[in-house]
Amino acid sequence: MNILDLQVILVLLIGIISGIAIGSLPGLTATMGVALVLPITFGMNPITGILLLIGVYFGSVYGGSLTAILINTPGTPASAATAMDGYEMSKKGLAHKALTISTLSSTIGGILSVIVLILVAPQLANFALKFSAPESFALAVFGISIISSIAGKSMTKGLMAGVLGLLVATIGIDPMGGFPRFTFGSINLASGVNLIPVMIGLFAASEAFKSMEDIFAKQNLAIKVEKVRLKWSEFKTLIVTIIRSAGIGTFIGMIPGAGGDITSFIAYNEAKRFSKNKEEFGKGAMKGVAAPEAANNSVTGGAMIPLLTLGIPGDAVTAVLLGALMVQGLQPGPLLFTNNGPIVYTLFIGMLLANLFILIIGLLGIKYFIKILSVPKAILSPLILVLCVVGSYALNNNYFDVMVMFLAGVIGYFMVKLEFPVSPVILGLILGPIMESNFRRSLLMSQGNLAVFYTRPITLVLLIFALVTLLGPIISKLIKISKGKEIINENN
């Protein structure tokens, strides 16, 4: 079937629009969206069916940024990093510019990752196989070290929030021993605390609570929406950040089990590290929007690399796509390119078109997306809470998740009041299980020999990066303090 057939184009567009809608709703992740659409593709032509799923996948990853930027409600965990600067831009009346940056970064990141998939997929897939438990542990430690960059004004408060996330991540069945930890006899806690309700509570529900408080206090709640467009001179300053973030996303995306959640935070950290104006991050920095969006959308192409070349899914969504390919009679692996070459390269073209359609739909839809900011907060805040309840309940059809969401919302509300950053909590929840399980697997592999963490080159490099990232801000502050003391002594 020709990729340019009207039927194929329409199916791809329907998938993208559906994906954007799914991704923008709290609690409905890309994995859930693809899984829901999967049964529809069983009777379709292989190309049409797979492209429908790819459209939903790509669209939902992009869609998560819309609500993250506009109402501080990340539609997907990968958009949590985007909310830190995207929502600050919206509060300054720069929602139009923030959404433009998000759309352009998402498209460029997605296209670059597909180009890498087409050109060097087999070689990169072989390199990804070198990532075993020690490397995955070191990558998780590197991710945790990013707390130093997203801690905000107080490093101590950031570390406390990160530790809280790590502690919550230990609740549930022990990943290696199989015995319950901190469940207090509750069946609902046996599988651990779900990330999605906690994220919805910390970001969306807490923001709704704060808005409702402002309503009762009769404070000015209006957010100005200025049609300030992105200038070419501003976009040029983002190009290097977007390309670097796309490379990070593609690389981490091809590592089985890594996913876009950790990627967006790592890209955000690297954007801040290379920025000359580090203090603007967290206050509405354009690079703080461009980096995570380029990274989490480039994961889509990166995760397809091990899937198509080795038959190993790079993340949860590609695990569903693996099943879809097999249902259509396609066996992912080295022989896929030999036996089904025309279909594979047609899918590649479809993936490039999917990213271009996201660009078109995103840019055309910005003027409609930002209308949500014109809704009075007295109406919008209760609606956000309703979406929080629906999104939390839809995960497992369990009211316990709704209770977790409300509890996280209350905690998030007081954290904002006390100026504690909430992003480190999410980072700890995401990376805690990855770090713990791979640390213990590494010790089993080496029979308890800690040398496994510094005799493997990739592991050692990642751990060094983690140490530099964590200690960098502390060292820079000490240098500033010492310089300040020198100036005072000279004046005296």
Structure in a nutshell:
This protein is an all-alpha fold and 492 residues long. It contains 20 helices and two strands. The protein starts with 5 loop residues before the first helix and ends with a helix.
Describe the structure.
The chain has 20 helices and 2 strands. With 492 residues, the protein is an all-alpha fold. Strands 1-2 form a two-stranded antiparallel ribbon. The protein is globular, with a radius of gyration of 22 Å. The model has no long low-confidence stretch (mean pLDDT 84).
**Strands side by side in the biggest sheet:** 1-2
Helix share bin:
over 70%
Radius of gyration: 22 Å
Proportion of β residues? under 5%
How is the main sheet built?
A: 2 strands, antiparallel
Give short descriptive properties of this protein.
about 500 residues, mainly alpha, two-stranded antiparallel ribbon, about 0% strand, about 70% helix
Task: Provide the fold topology.
Layout: H1 6-24, H2 30-37, H3 46-71, H4 80-91, H5 95-128, H6 133-145, H7 147-150, H8 155-169, E1 172-173, E2 180-181, H9 195-216, H10 232-236, H11 239-253, H12 259-274, H13 286-310, H14 316-327, H15 336-339, H16 341-369, H17 377-396, H18 399-417, H19 423-445, H20 457-491
Antiparallel strand pairs: 1-2
Helix pairs in contact: 1-3, 1-16, 2-3, 2-14, 3-4, 3-5, 3-13, 3-14, 3-16, 4-5, 4-13, 5-11, 5-13, 5-16, 6-19, 6-20, 8-19, 9-17, 9-18, 11-12, 11-13, 12-13, 17-18
